[in-house]
Design goal:
This protein is an alpha/beta fold. The protein is built from 16 helices and 7 strands. It has helices at residues 19-26, 42-45, 55-63, 82-96, 107-113, 120-136, 152-162, 167-174, 179-193, 215-227, 267-275, 285-291, 299-307, 311-322, 328-352, 354-362; strands spanning 29-30, 49-53, 69-74, 100-105, 144-146, 206-211, 236-240. The chain has a 7-stranded mixed sheet with strand order 1-2-7-6-3-4-5, with helices on both faces. Helix 10 links the parallel strand 6 and strand 7 (236-240). Bound molecules: iron/sulfur cluster. Iron/sulfur cluster binds next to helix 13, helix 14 and helix 15.
């Protein structure tokens, strides 16, 4: 780490590619293949979960069919896209494994940490929008909360936490001290730790699935948990790869609409973005037939890898692409057909959740 320049900035939209360096620098462990036998979800089956901190505690609870805390959140700073769906899918998976669920829709965090959110009113409108999608992806009203309407005990706890980190520590981890981002980060620590207070679930292992770019928050939260003076389990984390953007080089980002398919996108726009996605195809059909394509760098294949349930089909496309038997035009149509069908059904459901989402945000 160079002075004032951390290796990972959780607020940046750059894609992390140097995994080994990050593992080594911050002491993350590679995810243990043995555990995957008990974790039947495509993110585990397809090696999209790559690293962990203290996951042994959580897998032990899953195997023993004992409860554990499942906590994650979304900063409502823009419309949700397929990259966000990955976080929600993982959360729903742990919910189905018997977790106690805390999904934070982080309107205050978004307002404090994102320049583009200029009023709380805007953050709350986005929270409603985000929530209707979250609820349509399989979470219930009981699984979610919005920060601005959390009870007093949560805020009291967040203030307690704030005394456990100094400006210097904050600067060493994040590379800068910015009041809005400090406030947002403190609420995030509170989000992760508060379910273990006696007023909620009490002490028990907890799991949060994040991208590697969020590891600074994980390190600080784990550190604070040990010196807070409460009897808490140090929270566990797993790290998944981010689905990258449809164009070359970046992760799917709300700030760059052409890199992402949004859950609100109309079907025509979604189709257009997919048909224009970066692929691993060759310059001509003849070349592709002869040399095969490269699904490893292909955004169309990546979309299937993160979201298409059928393992055999995803593997078949991978193999036939490599062999030059499967061409990009057909492949894009196949993927578009899957995405559009999903969106059509999902958007109908999301409309039905609008009123519930408004009630959660505004009361
Ligand atoms: Fe990508 Fe499909 Fe083309 Fe292969 S055939 S490079 S997987 S779009």
């Amino acid at each position: 780490m160079t002075e004032n320049k951390p290796l990972i900035d959780p607020w940046s939209s750059n894609n992390i590619t140097d995994y080994e360096h990050v593992f080594k620098e911050f002491g993350l462990k590679a995810f243990n293949d043995e555990w995957k036998k008990d974790l039947d979800h495509l993110l585990f089956r397809r090696n999209l979960v790559i690293a962990e901190r203290d996951f042994a505690k959580v897998i032990a609870r899953i195997k023993a069919k004992k409860p554990f805390v499942n906590i994650t959140g979304i900063a409502s700073s823009g419309p949700l896209h397929f990259g966000h769906k990955v976080d929600i899918d993982l959360f729903r998976f742990f919910k189905e494994k018997g977790a106690r669920n805390y999904f934070a829709v982080s309107d205050i965090d978004a307002y404090c940490s994102r320049d583009k959110i200029t009023a709380m009113k805007q953050a709350k409108e986005l929270a409603v929008n985000n929530l209707k999608h979250v609820l349509s992806l399989g979470l219930s009203e009981k699984d979610v909360y919005v920060q601005s309407r959390k009870e007093q005990r949560y805020y009291e706890f967040a203030f307690e936490l704030s005394k456990k980190i100094t400006n210097n520590e904050f600067e060493a981890v994040y590379g800068h001290v910015n009041l809005g981002k400090i406030s947002a980060a403190i609420l995030q620590y509170g989000d992760i730790l508060h379910p273990q207070l006696s007023e909620y679930e009490g002490k028990m292992p907890s799991i949060t699935g994040i991208g590697l770019d969020q590891d600074p928050h994980a390190r600080v939260t784990r550190d604070i948990a040990q010196r807070l003076g409460y009897d808490l389990e140090v929270p566990s984390f797993i790290y998944f790869k981010h689905q990258s953007g449809l164009r070359e080089g970046k992760k799917m980002s709300s700030s760059e609409p052409n890199t992402a398919i949004f859950l609100d996108d109309n079907l025509k726009d979604a189709e257009k973005k997919l048909m224009g996605a970066f692929t691993g195809g060759r310059n001509t059909i003849e070349e592709q037939r002869k040399l095969g394509g490269n699904p490893d760098i292909c955004k169309v294949h990546e979309m299937l890898k993160f979201h298409y349930e059928d393992d055999k089909e995803v593997e078949r496309i991978f193999t036939e692409c490599r062999q030059g038997k499967w061409l990009c035009g057909d492949c894009k149509k196949f993927c578009a057909n899957f995405v559009l069908k999903f969106l059509e059904k999902h958007q109908k459901e999301a409309e039905k959740k609008q009123k519930t989402a408004e009630k959660i945000v505004y009361g």
